[in-house]
Write a structure and sequence with these properties.
The complex is a heterotrimer of chains A (434), B (306) and C (299).
Chain A (H helix, E strand, L loop, with lengths): L1 H17 L29 E6 L5 H16 L2 E6 L2 H13 L6 E4 L13 H4 L9 H7 L9 E13 H7 L12 H15 L5 E3 L3 H10 L5 E2 L2 E2 L3 H16 L5 H5 L9 H5 L5 E5 L1 H9 L4 E3 L12 E8 L6 H11 L2 H11 L6 H6 L7 H13 L2 H8 L3 H16 L5 H19 L1
Parallel strand pairs in A: 1-2, 1-3, 5-8
Antiparallel strand pairs in A: 3-10, 4-8, 4-9, 4-10, 6-7
Helix pairs in contact in A: 2-14, 5-17, 6-7, 8-9, 8-18, 9-19, 18-19
Chain B lengths: L17 H34 L2 E2 L7 E2 L3 H8 L1 H34 L4 H13 L2 H11 L6 H8 L11 H29 L3 H9 L4 H12 L1 H17 L2 H6 L11 H10 L5 H31 L1
Chain C lengths: L31 H27 L4 H5 L13 H8 L3 H32 L5 H12 L3 H14 L6 H9 L2 H12 L3 H9 L4 H12 L1 H17 L2 H6 L8 H9 L6 H31 L5
Helix pairs in contact in C: 3-14, 4-7, 4-8, 4-11, 5-8, 8-11, 9-10, 11-14, 13-14
Classes of the chains: A alpha/beta (434), B mainly alpha (306), C mainly alpha (299).
């Protein structure tokens, strides 16, 4: 027993040794290049770059093609490292903490990594952000006006409809230029459900981000530049509608409850023709174009108080601690030039983030009319939705909202409490994020 | 066990032969394994312990907060709910799986025909990746289109929401855990059963004991050491359960099946990141498991000593 | 005991069928106990297998078939579209090879170092023995998720990142393996070892020539466990591997399962593909395990 004690003491000593401060204190965090840097695209011959990437499916090939072009043009070689979407952040965290920093990454949010990202205005000037949509730029602007990433594609939430089922039920589809109201959409969906015998009337992905679309249509958003912006009354209407639909089996309540805190998309339900209206976003267009057998189309977002949808998007960021920050920045800029973005967005059926592309329009090789509907909704979507999505605390707040809806469905509380709790939690999250 | 004079300093060959070699040998044997433990588990764990006294929202920059993380966690309702869930799961999982495994091993041991095929069938689930296990069962337990409910409905037993009701979800999780591991544990118990001298059972039989009495008074007591191994392994498996539960229920519905490892993982990697809190929770988890296992070990040691 | 013909000749064969049934062989009809037991075992085995069988059958179904209500049992046709789809979506061959290399190498290493450590803990009395044993137990209780970042830092500073060695060495020191082997070795008689020492054998010789062969059943068990663990290791290879050239199968599966649009039919096909090798290996090794267990060592 004495031996055990001695060894125990040794262990404690070891722990104390290890108690030198881990990592760095917040003040010591690394600084990037200061001052303006001229990027010389001709200077990258023979250098390599690690690009951490996740794919939505149809974009992988065109990205590889673009990379091949970049390699040919500059002589650099790009190492495309495709990771599972769910695990990308964990992998990135690990690499950053282990000093194995990649050069560029494709991200859905820059919040967890904002201290590690390169300010691109130092390389490309203070006017560089103006090439892109202001709403998306807001999401990547740092506290001191730095541009920490480039918005590489825009997503817009919106409804998909099963044209064949609508036709069978004799229900008209809305005119893209004159959108239907939320009431009209729900009524139409329920009519089609009754007439064709589908399992449900409407389906929505289990995500606070999708629910934000409805919130916006009822006139409110979760957050804005200054913090919590949720209007309890409007939120109760929106959430109340969802809960009611799920309780009357117009929407699948099971679907919302059975995946816990994991994200779950309702696309399979739509693809199996069990629901005539599916609230998702433009990323599904390429997917459905490939896999769905029946006739479908994109419908305009319904209006209540307001019209339009809710934005999202992906970003490309370069890392300060990269071995070759100049090459990293150059790659990011190159991939998001007009010609390159036009190609990516066109083939992958994404929405553009560049101002010039938004005004000149995109010639999509397929499903043009559907993408047009989304683009039209982009123009109708209010500014504050971009602010909400861009806030660092948005992800966590949206997740919390989804959880609160689950609790309401499981009959552990009513809608008013769900909204109240969301607002309270949002305030805490916003504070933590400062 | 008589000891002859081992003190002769005669020439011995082999790895560092001789008395000195004999003293040195255990350290050399133990070294490679312990080195890896030290480097890849113990050192990082100590590091984690250290971090539990800091606050961090990105895993790279830290600010010292002393024992605040611990007081914060212990004061959170959510934490205690997770603890309750974990304990419920572990106790249920260990109890049911151990009993089932013992029963299974007894049956298999007595079975002569087709034992190999049967054993393989029971063992198969353990070969499957836990992620896949969760996916398959998530699909099979779906209320309206799942395999289980389709059968139940055909027999007129309705369609319970296995993964939708908090209690049923916990039960389903325990059952899926049992399904996965019972073959694994039965295999260990089977090896233990094979090591029991059959003469003992025969003797009892000749004395007039029935099969059940023989099992209860001869076999089971002799199986204790192996049972102890299985209980410890099951306990540890239970506390560490994460992968299959995450794909099975995602921790739901409404957090009913969120166990401690998932909680730690989400705090460390999912926004809002609270890396210091995650580390503190890990330390608490470790203390609990260690305490439980140590108690188990002492209990078994005392039982062995009789 | 002689066995006569089927019919007892002393009795006339009456039409009423009062003939006694006499078995024509040595076997008695199975007792109720045996029948019940066999039935229970078989039914249990079927219940065990149903989900797996169903998953395999469903791996041939198309996406619409998978989502149909009520669910179908058999696929419409046993088309291999899902399999070709899954295989063509990424370099399956490379991932498979990596999985095989990592699994085999790690298992060999595990058997070697675990058995050595277990032997020391079981059969020697040395300073720090109890501490090291407790340390081993402690190590089992630290799930990887919980120490992920610090471990990565260690691996990174040792330069093991993005290499197969990084996936082979760290996981090889399985504490459960040490624990199981130690339990088994405790039952080995010290007499044999002492006798060998007196005969002039060195410590390592004793280990190699006497102890290890006696441990075959336990080694077989640890081996199959190691194969299962390394083959299905997901989180560790995911963190270590950066280039696709180093990915293993579970990482590929995760990629599919976590895409924004999960191609469940492909996920099923891939799951089946990843299950097969381990199942085949177990079926082959099962005889070894059985033989090892049946073989009695020096008791």
């Amino acid at each position: 027993m004495r031996r055990t004690k001695t060894l125990l003491a040794a262990t404690m000593a070891g722990i104390c040794l290890a108690a030198c401060a881990p990592g760095e204190t917040e003040d010591e965090a690394a600084e990037g290049p200061t001052g303006d840097v001229e990027v010389d695209f001709a200077s990258f011959e023979g250098e390599t770059l690690d690009y951490i990437y996740f794919t939505d499916g149809p974009d992988e090939q065109v990205t590889r093609d673009l990379i091949a072009d970049f390699e040919e043009e500059t002589g650099a070689s790009v190492n495309l490292q495709v990771l599972p979407y769910d695990d990308l952040e964990v992998s990135l965290q690990a690499r950053l903490s282990g000093d194995n920093v990649p050069d560029v990454a494709r991200l859905t949010t820059i919040t967890p990594f904002s201290d590690e990202l390169l300010d691109l205005t130092r390389f490309f000037g203070d006017e560089y952000p103006e090439e892109f949509l202001p709403g998306q730029v807001g999401a990547v602007t740092g506290a001191e006006g730095e541009m920490l990433a480039v918005p590489s594609d825009l997503t817009m939430n919106g409804p998909f409809v099963n044209v064949e089922q609508f036709r069978e039920a004799g229900v008209d589809l809305p005119d893209p230029d004159d959108p239907w109201t939320v009431e009209e959409m729900v009524a139409a969906a329920e009519e089609v459900q009754a007439a064709t015998g589908t399992e449900f009337a409407l389906a929505i992905d289990k995500s606070g981000h999708r629910v934000s679309t409805l919130l916006s249509q009822f006139g409110t958003t979760l957050l804005d530049e200054d913090g919590v912006a949720l209007d309890a009354g409007a939120a109760e209407e929106a959430v109340g509608l969802l809960v009611e639909l799920m309780e009357t089996d117009a929407m699948s309540g099971d679907f919302w409850l059975q995946s816990g805190s994991r994200y779950e998309g309702a696309n399979e339900i739509f693809a199996a023709e069990e629901v005539p209206v599916y609230l998702a976003g433009n990323w599904m267009v390429a997917e459905f174009a490939e896999s769905v057998q029946f006739e479908w189309a994109v419908a305009p977002n319904p209006c209540a108080e307001r019209c339009g949808g809710f934005p999202g998007g992906k970003f490309m960021a370069a890392f300060e601690r990269s071995d070759n920050p100049e090459l990293a920045a150059a790659f990011v800029q190159w991939m998001n030039r007009t010609e390159q973005q036009e190609r990516l967005v066109g083939e992958a059926l994404f929405l553009p983030t560049r101002q010039d592309l938004v005004s000149q329009g995109i010639d999509y090789p397929q499903r043009g009319p559907d993408m047009e509907v989304f683009l039209a909704d982009v123009k109708r979507t209010p500014e504050d939705t971009y602010e909400s999505n861009a806030h660092p605390a948005f992800g966590a707040t949206a997740d919390y909202l989804a959880e609160e809806i689950s609790e309401t469905l499981a009959e552990e509380q009513d809608v008013a409490t769900a909204v109240e709790d969301t607002i309270a939690e949002a305030e805490e999250l916003v504070e933590d994020a400062q | 066990m008589s000891r002859t004079t081992t003190e002769q300093p005669a020439r011995r060959r082999g790895r560092h032969g001789g008395i000195k070699g004999r003293r040195l040998a255990p350290y050399l044997f133990v070294a490679p394994n312990m080195l890896i433990f030290g480097l890849f588990t113990i050192w990082p764990a100590l590091n984690g312990f250290n971090i539990s006294f800091y606050d961090s929202d990105d895993g790279r920059t830290f600010s010292f907060v002393g024992t605040d993380n611990y007081t914060d966690i212990l004061g959170e309702d959510e934490f205690w709910e997770v603890v309750r869930n974990t304990l419920t799961f572990v106790v249920a999982f260990v109890a049911f799986t151990t009993v089932a495994a013992i029963a299974l091993s007894l049956l298999l041991n007595a079975q002569l025909r087709g034992r190999g095929i049967l054993r393989a069938a029971y063992f198969l689930p353990v070969l499957i990746s836990p992620i896949v296990v969760g996916l398959i069962w998530n699909w099979a337990l779906e209320r309206q289109v799942g395999l289980v409910n389709t059968v139940l409905e055909a027999v007129g037993l309705g369609q319970p929401g296995w993964l939708l009701d908090p209690q049923l979800a916990m039960g389903s999780t325990v059952l899926v855990g049992l399904w996965t591991h019972v073959g694994f544990f039965a295999l260990i118990l089977l090896a233990g059963l094979q090591a029991i001298d059959p003469n003992l059972n025969e003797a009892a039989g000749l004395d007039g004991a029935s099969a059940w009495q023989r099992t209860r008074h001869v076999t089971l007591p002799l199986l204790k050491p192996t049972t102890f191994v299985v209980v410890i392994l099951a306990t540890i498996t239970g506390f560490q359960a994460f992968d299959f539960i995450y794909t099975l229920t995602g921790g739901g519905p409404v957090g009913a099946t969120t166990l401690i490892v998932q909680n730690i993982y989400e705090q460390a990697f999912v926004s809002p990141i609270e890396y210091g809190l995650a580390s503190a929770a890990s330390v608490l988890l470790f203390i609990v498991i260690f305490g439980v296992t140590f108690a188990n070990y002492l209990f078994a040691r005392r039982a062995d000593a009789t | 005991m002689s066995r006569q013909a089927a019919v007892d000749r002393s009795r006339p064969a009456t039409g009423g069928g009062s003939g006694r049934w006499v078995s024509t062989s040595d076997r008695r009809p199975p007792s109720t106990g045996v029948v019940v037991r066999s039935t229970v075992l078989v039914v249990g085995a079927i219940l065990m297998l149903i989900p797996i069988v169903w998953a395999v059958l469903s791996s041939f179904k198309s996406r619409t078939e998978l989502a149909s209500r009520p669910p179908s049992v058999l696929p419409e046709r046993f088309g291999i579209d899902n399999y070709t789809g899954a295989l063509s979506s990424f370099s399956f061959g490379q991932y498979f090879l990596n999985s095989v290399i990592v699994t085999v190498a790690a298992t060999v290493l595990t058997l070697a170092i675990n058995s050595m450590a277990a032997y020391a803990l079981a059969k020697y009395n040395f300073r720090g023995r109890d501490f090291l044993f407790l340390l081993t137990l402690a190590t089992i209780m630290i799930p990887l998720q919980v120490i992920l970042l610090p471990v990565y830092q260690v691996v990174s500073s040792l330069g093991l990142v993005n290499s197969l060695w990084g996936m082979i060495i760290p996981p090889a020191a399985t504490p459960t393996g040490v624990f199981l082997l130690r339990q088994y070795m405790l039952t080995l008689p010290d007499d044999t070892l002492e006798a060998a020492r007196i005969d002039g054998a060195g410590e390592f010789q004793i280990f190699w020539r006497i102890v290890l062969p006696l441990c075959r059943p336990a080694l077989a068990v640890v081996a199959i466990f190691s194969v299962i663990w390394r083959w299905n290791d997901f989180l560790w290879p995911l963190i270590i591997a950066q280039d696709e050239s180093v990915y293993t199968l579970p990482v590929a599966l995760a990629r599919f399962s976590s895409q924004q649009v999960v191609p469940f039919n492909l996920v099923l096909a891939m799951s089946v593909l990843s299950m097969l090798p381990v199942i085949i290996l177990f079926l082959l090794m099962q005889r070894q395990i059985v033989a090892g267990i049946a073989q009695t060592g020096m008791k």
